[in-house]
Amino acid sequence: MKAGVRALGIAESFTDDRSTLAGAVVRADRVVDGFAFGRCTVGGHDATDAVCDVITRLDRPDVRYVLVAGIAPAWFNILDLRALYDAVERPVISITFEESPGLESAIESAFDGQELTRRLARYHAQPDRWKLDVDDETLFVRNVGCTESEAADVVRAFTPEGGRPEPLRVARLAARGVESAFGADADPPSEPATED
User: What domains sit in the chain, N to C, each tagged with a CATH number?
Assistant: First the structure.
């Protein structure tokens, strides 16, 4: 992959009832050249809209891929990967880092009634998860808008070492930093930060 290809990583950090989302634009050569932040509700249903808002505010047509850390940020605020792809019009790749039997039993333990039905419906509507070996690590991937082969190439190209793609690693650090600096009650920076 060419050094200048850009991916946007979206990760979160949460305490209390709001989650800080960070978007980090990272080139394949590991140069970081943009950040944007947003919020979603812990245990809510607004994560997909919040991620779309971060991407819209970044206004970076040069970003070719969107990588998200998992599909259930902010305590099962399930992302709709297909709706996200439709909104941002570029491939969306969800990556998790631990093997599990899935989220169904955890969702069933945490919710009931309409909340359970709504979350399970969204969870079951997501693409299947598949294993990807990167260096000595195994990652678990879902993809929309690209083939599994292309998704594997993207994840490997943006994972220079260890088992976490650089856009997600940087986004997670940024989300934690903003959460630590501003707390759950304050709004994170609203203007995107870029090199330009």
Answer: 6-186 (3.30.2170.10)
